[in-house]
């Protein structure tokens, strides 16, 4: 059975987010594979397709010839109403096959606010919400991603969690599921086998004494999706992304990501250049990004940016880089950034006063921030963006007013 997706498209606002068949998407005949996995991001297509983790898992699973991995996302309200009104189940993009007909449903969970979307997607798929209510005929429901570091809020609803980096876990998961499917083991026996994978947590088997977060030792070239799916419509981060580093050498006290993605691992400049060439050649994207929690701490950044210049100029591609520490923009780094990013640079003071910056683990002086912005403007950047956070512990009105004061100082002293 397949859903007649085409008949639904005239009645929704963003039909391109439901049709599948994007450039570089992977399509396999379900009759020629042994295992079918529905990979979900519990938010809109535009957000889910901007998530690098989803792209990596999709790539890794589809490298197995016997596995068909297909995607689905949380439908917008118009599509959800249409599905419910006509008793149509949620479906996979690649094939239109209802999610309930897959062997495995895998959620990538990045944010706590998507927990309710997971339940809604299970309901739209016709699956029991609670693990205890699912039977042998239902797909296994698994989850991974940053939010699974604390799996308990979803423990009643997920059959198996995978905690930490996914590269090794996904491969081991695939091997176990292919074996148990071939051997026709029961649901309980399959979950017991999954529980033997390091970093896994099966709530129905009881709370383990300890779960060790999986850590990928090296960022392998083969594990990264070098030929990215190119959506038909605009997405939140509409560009080709290459992960430059995972983890962070800093210890900012507010940063959950450093804990989730640590320890620090760096991709080699040669691998980055190879991925950039392959990705741009196979996608046609006009913008790319180097993904890292702290790009200025990548030890080869300046040399890498200079080598990227020729590639980006030849393909007429612009470069996006996440925010730079407000005390890290030197003339040498700024000059290298100016080669590949002509218009703006983003600095991250985070807080408006030196007291609060020390409290959160970013002890940088106001004068140093002013100097960095002077450097940026002096090198010809027309716009400097500043990144601040509101609501930090111990924050006072003085700290809030400090944001305004710092911006005024920059406007008068740095911009001139």
Summarize the structure.
This protein has helices spanning about 5-10, 45-50, 50-60, 75-85, 115-125, 165-185, 185-195, 255-260, 270-285, 300-315, 330-340, 355-360, 365-380, 395-415, and strands at about 35-40, 65-75, 105-110, 140-145, 160, 200, 240-245, 245, 265, 285-290, 320, 325, 345-350, 385-390.
Strands of the biggest beta sheet: in what spatial order? Answer: 2-1-3-4-5-6
Helix content: 25-40%
CATH level-3 fold name of the largest domain: Rossmann fold
Strand content: 5-15%
Assembly state (oligomeric): single chain
> CATH top level of the largest domain?
Alpha Beta
Per CATH, the architecture of the largest domain is: 3-Layer(aba) Sandwich
- The overall pLDDT, averaged over residues, is 93
Protein name: TIGR03960 family B12-binding radical SAM protein
InterPro entries: CHP03960_rSAM (IPR023862), Elp3/MiaA/NifB-like_rSAM (IPR006638), Radical_SAM_N2 (IPR045784), rSAM (IPR007197), rSAM_horseshoe (IPR023404), rSAM_sf (IPR058240)
GO molecular function, one term: iron-sulfur cluster binding
Organism: candidate division TA06 bacterium
Describe the structure.
- It is a single chain.
- The protein is of the alpha/beta class and 416 residues long.
- It folds into two domains: 5-205, Rossmann fold; 240-414, tm_1862 like domain (pyruvate-formate lyase- activating enzyme, Alpha-Beta Horseshoe), CATH 3.80.30.
- Helix content is 35%, strand content 15%.
- The protein is built from 14 helices and 14 strands.
- It has helices at residues 5-8, 45-48, 52-62, 77-85, 115-124, 167-183, 187-194, 256-261, 269-283, 301-315, 331-340, 354-359, 366-378, 397-414, and strands at residues 35-41, 67-73, 104-108, 140-144, 160-162, 200-201, 240-243, 245-246, 265-266, 287-291, 318-321, 324-325, 344-350, 383-388.
- The strands form four sheets. It has a six-stranded mixed β-sheet. A three-stranded parallel β-sheet has the order 7-10-11, with helices on one face.
- Strand 12, helix 11 (331-340) and strand 13 form a beta-alpha-beta unit.
- The longest helix is centred in the last third of the chain and has 18 residues, at 397-414.
- The chain starts with a helix and ends with a helix.
- The mean pLDDT is 93.
- This is TIGR03960 family B12-binding radical SAM protein.
- Residues 234-416 form the Radical SAM core domain.
- Pfam families: Radical_SAM, Radical_SAM_N2.
- It comes from candidate division TA06 bacterium.
- InterPro entries: CHP03960_rSAM, Elp3/MiaA/NifB-like_rSAM, Radical_SAM_N2, rSAM, rSAM_horseshoe, rSAM_sf.
């Amino acid at each position: 059975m397949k859903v007649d997706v085409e008949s639904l498209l005239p009645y929704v606002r963003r039909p391109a987010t439901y049709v599948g068949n994007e450039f570089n998407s992977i399509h396999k005949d379900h009759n020629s594979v042994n295992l079918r996995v529905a990979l979900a991001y519990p938010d809109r297509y535009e957000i889910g397709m901007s998530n690098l983790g989803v792209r990596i898992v999709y790539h890794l699973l589809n490298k197995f010839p016997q596995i068909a991995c297909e995607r689905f996302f949380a439908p917008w309200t118009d599509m959800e109403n249409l599905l419910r009104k006509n008793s149509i189940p949620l479906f996979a993009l690649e094939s239109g096959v209802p999610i309930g007909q897959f062997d495995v449903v895998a959620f990538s969970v990045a944010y706590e606010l998507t927990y309710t979307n997971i339940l809604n997607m299970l309901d739209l798929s016709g699956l029991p919400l609670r693990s205890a209510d699912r039977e042998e005929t239902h797909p296994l429901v698994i989850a991974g991603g940053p939010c699974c570091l604390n799996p308990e809020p979803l423990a009643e609803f997920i059959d198996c969690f995978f905690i930490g980096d996914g590269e090794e876990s996904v491969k081991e998961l695939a091997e176990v599921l292919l074996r148990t499917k071939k051997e026709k083991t029961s649901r309980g026996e399959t979950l017991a086998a999954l529980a033997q994978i390091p970093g896994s947590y099966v709530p129905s088997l009881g709370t383990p004494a300890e779960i060790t977060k999986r850590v990928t030792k090296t960022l392998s070239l083969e594990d990264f999706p070098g030929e990215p799916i190119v959506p038909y419509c605009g997405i939140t981060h509409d560009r080709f992304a290459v992960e430059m580093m995972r983890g962070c050498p800093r210890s900012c006290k507010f940063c959950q990501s450093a804990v989730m993605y640590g320890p620090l691992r760096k991709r080699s400049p040669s691998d980055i250049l190879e991925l950039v060439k392959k990705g741009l050649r196979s996608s046609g994207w006009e913008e790319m990004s180097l993904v890292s929690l702290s790009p200025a701490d990548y030890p080869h950044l300046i040399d890498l940016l200079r080598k990227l210049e020729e590639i980006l100029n030849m393909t007429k591609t612009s470069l996006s880089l996440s925010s730079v520490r407000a005390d890290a923009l030197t003339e040498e780094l700024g000059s290298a950034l100016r080669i590949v990013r002509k218009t703006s640079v983003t600095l991250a003071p985070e807080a408006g006063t030196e007291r609060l910056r020390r409290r959160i683990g970013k002890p940088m002086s106001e004068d140093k921030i002013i100097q960095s912005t002077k450097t940026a403007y002096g090198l010809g950047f027309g716009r400097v963006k500043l990144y601040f956070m509101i609501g930090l512990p111990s924050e006072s009105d003085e700290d809030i007013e400090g944001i305004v004061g710092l911006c005024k100082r920059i406007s008068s002293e740095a911009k001139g």
